[in-house]
Design brief:
It is a single chain. The protein is mainly beta. The strands form two sheets. Strands 2, 4, 5, 6, 9, 10 and 11 form a seven-stranded mixed β-sheet that branches. It has a four-stranded antiparallel β-sheet with strand order 1-3-8-7, with no helix packed on it. The protein contains no helices and eleven strands.
Length: 118
């Protein structure tokens, strides 16, 4: 079972970012899916989370310019951030809580680098 991110790279300041993450393997169900990031000099932090049922949470640093969505049929989660700032530069990680067999497992992706340039 794994989750794999895609969509990182260079983004112009003021532009938009869209990241995708797909889960694969013998997954019986999906609970929470989320995006975290590690910005230079900081610990990994939550960017946005979408729970089973659709409730969402956003970091104050992105709230109002960020949308997280999920597609359970595709076992995927998406992140869109508009008006990207230099401080949004970092490694973005996908995180999912997945039912594998009879246990819920927390799975991390390897991360995708996002660099905002002026």
């Amino acid at each position: 079972v794994q989750v794999v991110e895609s969509g990182g790279g260079l983004v112009q300041a003021g532009g938009s970012l869209r990241l995708s993450c797909g889960a694969s393997g013998m997954i019986a169900a999906i609970n929470e899916m989320a995006w975290y990031r590690r910005t230079p000099g900081n610990q990994r932090e939550l960017v946005a989370r979408v729970r089973d049922g659709g409730r969402t949470d956003y970091s104050s640093s992105v709230e109002g310019r960020c949308t997280i969505s999920r597609d359970d049929a595709e076992k995927s989660v998406y992140l869109e951030i508009s008006n990207m700032q230099l401080e949004d530069t970092g490694v973005y990680y996908c995180y999912a809580v997945l039912l594998v067999g009879r246990t819920w497992d927390a799975i991390w992706g390897l991360g995708t680098q996002v660099t905002v340039v002026s």
